[in-house]
Fold:
Amino acid sequence: MFTGIITGVGRIVAVHDLGSSLQHGKRLTIEAPAGYLGDVGLGDSIALNGACMTVTTFDAAASQFTIDISVESLSKTAGLAEAGQVNLEKALRPQDRLGGHIVSGHVDGVGRVTRMQQVGESWELRILAPAAIGKYLAYKGSITVNGVSLTVNTVDDREDGSEIAINLIPHTVDNTALGALREGSAVNLEIDLIARYVERMLTAAPATKPARAPS
Structure:
C-alpha cells in the first residue's frame, strides 16, 4: 500500500528486453536520489509513476535499482517503457503518516493531459480520463496521477471520457515529475480505493439463501 506522497524523483536510465518475443516484458534500471535506497531490500515494493513494482536488484552506493515489468503491466500503464523521470514512493509502513490517501499502486486507466498551465502561483492540470473510470471521479474526491495523491476540483463528463481539473501547488510541481507534463502527455490514473467497494456494494447481486430441505 502507498499514500500518494512522492518520496523521491528518479530516472529510468536503461530499458532492456527480457526476451525476443512480443510476450516478453522489460527490465528497467532506475536511478534514485542519493541515499534513497538505504533502507531498501530485495523484494521490496516501490511505486513508479503510481505502478507498484518489485525491486529485483539494487546498488545502494550507486543509488540504482532494477525492476521487471510484464507485457500486461506495460499495456496498462504509461511512461514505463522509455528513459525519463519517474515519481517514486516506497511502500507504506504501519507507523507512517497517511499524508495523502490509501493507494494500492494498481493503475486503473491511462489519461491524457488536456491542459497544463500556470494560474497565479499554482498550475491548473486538466486530464481526460477514460470513460470507464469516469463514474469513480467526484468533486473534491481523491485521484492518483502518476503516483501523486491529488484532489479533483471539477469533473466534466464528455462523450470521449471525463475531464477533471486539478490544482497543483508549487511544492508539488517542484518535488515531483508532474512539472514535466504537457498537453498530450499520457498519465497513470488510480481511482480512490473506497469508490471500488462502494460500487461493488451497490451493484453486486444479493446473495441467495440455499433452499431448506423439507423436514
User: Anything to note?
Assistant: The mean pLDDT is 94. DSSP finds three helices and twelve strands in the chain. The first strand starts at residue 8 and ends at 17.
